[in-house]
Each structure stands twice: as structure tokens, then as C-alpha cells.
Amino acid sequence: LSGLDPAQPYFQGTPTEVRLDKSDADFVDVIHTDSAPTIPNLGFGISPAIGHIDFYPNGGEEMPGCAKNPISQIVDLDGIWEGTRDFVACNHLRSYKYYSDSIIYPDGFLGYPCASYDLFQSGKCFPCPEEGCPNMGHYADKFKDKFKNDFVKLYLNTGENKDFPLWRYKITVTLSGKKKVKGYVNVALYGSDGNTKQYQITKGTLKPDNTYTAYIDAEINVGEVTKVKFLWNNNWINPTLPKLGAATITVEAGENR
What we know:
Elements: E1 2-4, E2 29-31, H1 38-41, E3 53-57, H2 70-74, H3 80-104, E4 112-113, H4 117-121, E5 152-156, E6 167-177, E7 181-191, E8 194-195, E9 199-206, E10 211-218, E11 225-233, E12 244-253
Parallel strand pairs: 1-2, 2-3, 3-5
Antiparallel strand pairs: 4-5, 6-10, 6-12, 7-8, 7-9, 7-11
InterPro entries: AB_hydrolase_fold, Lipase, PLAT/LH2_dom, PLAT/LH2_dom_sf, TAG_lipase
Pfam family, one: PLAT
Keywords: Cell projection, Cytoplasmic vesicle, Disulfide bond, Hydrolase, Lipid degradation, Lipid metabolism, Secreted
């Protein structure tokens, strides 16, 4: 059984007979997309973990792309009716949109086991454990019986609109050069299955020999990494023409470490 943001009002905190619960099927997976408190946030979805595995995309409360202004949302690509409905219950309805996207992305929507969304965001639950990460949505049942814990909370990030899946990478850059400068460092990944856009690794003071780490959620699974593009900029014309390079760049894919 897959629960797509099961309802919170009148159900949260009720006995298991009344609401969705892991005792309802051999395997229950749940996607939480609107689990902020009903009052005052108007969250429609239940927040506690109630399945065998529970996915909390983007933390489970506010979905990216749902904060658009009402006009752009209502006259969205899907037309006036779907746009109006999305505006009223955008977070809640993301659950079925993620699910339908998951059917065509068998390798997408990896959920990382983690104690909280903040820990996930800071990279504490990266990469996937040895046994791998479950895929949120249609292919979640590949992980039936793999978790022995009572409740498993899984976290991931998604895109703002279709296509929703993102793939998480850890990128570590050690700089080389003569002296420190202010600016930013961007990195793009190239691989056997495609290329990403540029992602900012750090900004501010850039010191040679220092190492900077960022976790990026890329819009594509690049497959085997074949090339990395390194870019830095100090945003203003510096007459001393400072030079900065990358001594090393390490890329780690969350899925297969």
C-alpha cells in the first residue's frame, strides 16, 4: 500500500483501526508532502511515521514550487482547473505528482535514512548505507523487509516542477593558488548519461590549500563521471589578475558511494 500524503485532520493521533497504518498491508510506504500543523499552517497531511518506510521529500512540509504567486500558479501549464486546485492544495497534491514521476525514473527519488531533515541537509546522512536507499514512489517495495526498525524516516529533495527527481552528490574542492581572494567557486559534472548545470560550492573568501565541501541535488543522474568543470570568479575587475585553480576535486555519488 502506498499512502500519498494521508490525511491529517480527524486522523492524526487516532487509533490504528481508523487511519492508514503499517498493519494494513504486508508493506506500507508513505509519502508526506503537507505535514505542517493544520493550525495555523493548513497542513492536510499526517506528520508521524505510520508505514514500514516513510518518505519526507523536502522535509515533508513545504514543497518547492508551491510558493509561486497565485496568478502564475493558476494559469500554469496544466490549465486553469488544475492550476486553481494546485494553488489551494499544492503541497498536498505533490505526493501523487512525485509518485507518477517515479514510475518513469526507476533510479530516482532516493530516500536517505536520517533522524531529521536538518541533518540530511547538512550531509550527515550521506551517502546511502551499504544496502542502498529506497526509491520513493512506485519502486519503494524493492525495499520490503530490508529495514528491521519499527519506523524508518527517509529524506530527499525534489525539483520545483516536472521533472521532479534530483540526484545527490558530495563535491569536495581543494584550491590552489598564490593568495586568497574573494569570490565564488562553481562546479559542473559531466558523465556517461549526461551533464549537470553549474552548482555553487562556496562563496566568500577563497583560500589556496583550503578544502570546500557542498552537497548538491543535481537535475540529472550523470552515471559514470567523465569530466568536471571548475569555475571561479571574483565578481569584479582586479588589476592584480589573481589566479586560482583546483588542486583536487572529489565527487561522491550518494547512491553507490
